[in-house]
Amino acid sequence: MTAATTRRTTARHRGTGTADFATTDTPIGPFTALTDATGYVLAAGWTTDAENLRTLIHPALRPTELRHRDSLGPVTQAVIDYHRGDLTAIDTVPVRQHSGEFLLHAWEVLRQIPAGSPITYTEFAAGAGRPDATRAAANACARNAAALFVPCHRVFRIGGALGGFRWGLPIKRWLLDHEA
Hints:
The protein has 180 residues and is α/β, with parallel strands linked by helices.
């Protein structure tokens, strides 16, 4: 993959200083992203509560302070472009999450699911190399802090039920319809 790859970190300490955040209006509500000093997305979602997003970040990467910005440059532009119809705008935004090997790999697999081609949790588990681990695949979606950029909304249950989504099923439905 490119720079958009979820990066594994060897950080062994808690807290990483200051993260920047910005909130952007979208057709489905305000979207906030938090980035580290190098511009990698640490967390994102449809909320104005940056502190809530901060708590989703693994302790090894969790910033100790948050700084509001009007824009996060290319991250903010990608959010705007995606919601305006450029479904690939989010593909090159770099993301940094921390976890074990399976979750890191599963998040990479999520980033490779094309817009408009959602898959089931069973297919996701198989694509992540653990075909019998549907629950582990669902857990990867649930623990994903970087919504939109790591598009867990593109995974649904067998039979077409949406499954869960931290930001609510109406937002997940809108995203899937937007990408169809």
